[in-house]
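ingest -> fold -> write
write: protein_1
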Amino acid sequence: MTNFYAAVTIILWGAMPALTKDLLNALPSFETLALSSSFAAIFLFAVNRRSKTLTCDAGKIFTAASLGFVGLFLYSAFLYYGLERLASQEACVLNYLWPLMIVLFSCPVLGEKLTRRKLLAVGMSFAGVVVIMLGNASTQNFSADKFAGALSCVIAAACYGLFSVLNKKIRLEQKFAMMIIWATTAICAFVAGFATENWSMPNAGQLFGLLWLGVMINAVAYLTWALALENSADTARTANLAYLVPILAVFVSTFVFGEELSATVIPALILILGGILVGRK
């Protein structure tokens, strides 16, 4: 079952950047985040209720909510900002700096050592960021917006990396924690959206896209990934399968959604994923 759970996760996460980019072309970013996060929280509430993992422990709820603000509200807000300004394939590749951010944050938070191999890994992956930045700078379409979008994706990766390390250190029950985390993300997005955006009623196709993003990608994919790691006899080997996600995302954005393949994406992807693999050995 481990391979099945991992395959489901990879397929769902691989479609996320292009699907989100498509939704953001029609809807404001905070509206997209608020509605999709609400669907995720409602779905996870049903899951927790059925498995009897709901709790009224105020301390756990506050901790999960704090993680949700840093790890998924800020992460998603910065990622969506980047997706609005970059091709989805570029945003996805830059976002996949988060495994390297885990390496960096593990040193001060978990007390792990920053070795020469880890420094090399960080250098390789950030070289991938430079490739995309320089590639955009060499085109006539380069603008401050594109630079801000790329920087926003890097900040998003840092937020998710910090969230992952803190989540590992705190060790909450994951189904319950993810419900609170997505609920917190939804609440924060509603507040930010009503303060800064003019919302519109999604049509039937957009509503289906939001439902798919919230339930399948935000909720189900996280659960299947947790199950894949939980049932794996070799956690590191299973975790390495996640590196197929940006490759699949580039394929989906190019061949399904019709984006033109950027000349900088492949070398940047090689550098970033190469850095991640070097850092794991």
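write: protein_2
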Amino acid sequence: MIPYVRDIDIEYGRCDQVSPLIRRVTANNPGPFTFKGTGTYIVGRGEVAVIDPGPDDPAHLEAILAAVAGETVTHILITHHHSDHSPLAGALKARTGATIYGCAVAGHEVEDTGEVKMEAGHDHDFRPDVSLCGGGRVSGPGWTMEAIPTPGHTSNHLCFALVEENALFSGDHIMGWSTTVITPPDGDMTDYLASLEQIRARGFDTLWPTHGPPIRAVDAFIAAYIDHRQERVDQILTALQTGPAKINQLVPRLYADVDARLHPAAARSMLAAMIHLVRKGELATEGAAGPDSEYRLAG
């Protein structure tokens, strides 16, 4: 069972000092994908980096600028291009002259227009000034940030390690309040599981997700995250022991205890797992693995 952490003291627009080098300002955009809102992090003093400035919200922009009054924003770091993370970067750059760092997504995904949305939407206009798709370091007075490519939630997701505090800004890759949505085609379960293992191996002391409170028991939390994904995979493999099936046949069986209105979302998540299992050679299907394919145990 995942040991969720959901207690957080926030006031929208307030700047909170949350560690010696980190401040946080939370945007007033609570919701099913954002928890209490987007937590924008400010790193350093004097010459600072801003991580995930958040949605296109003029009030949040003014709150960030008030928090750094008298200081210089030199770096704007973006974990990924979803609309609750990156849209305010352009306006913040216009007001501060800072450089935007991140990883551009390779292609434009089709917006999720179904009854049950899986994400807050995409910022198709996001283009960093400096690409960190392959990783890299940026720094300022007293702080050093390492960009770590962590594809899975999105193809262009980055986490940022604060070297001086052995801490990681984990974006939506790892969140304390919820599991992470993996939605093909831009989301990829195989990449996601590999990225989780990569972050776990680094031995960070603290994770700072963009949404919700910090995660302190890092190794145990990531282990539970991985176990949860494996449990879902095991459920699929067990269900297919009785014979081939399609996703729309499996979802009502495996998610019988979940509100049926959420079954379309469950189907999207299951598709990510199916693609992963076909790649591993544990499942087989005719043609490319897709939402309407019939899946069977391989061999």
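write: annotation protein_2
Helices lie at 58-67, 89-96, 189-202, 218-239, 247-254, 263-280.
The longest strand covers residues 143-149.
pipeline exit 0
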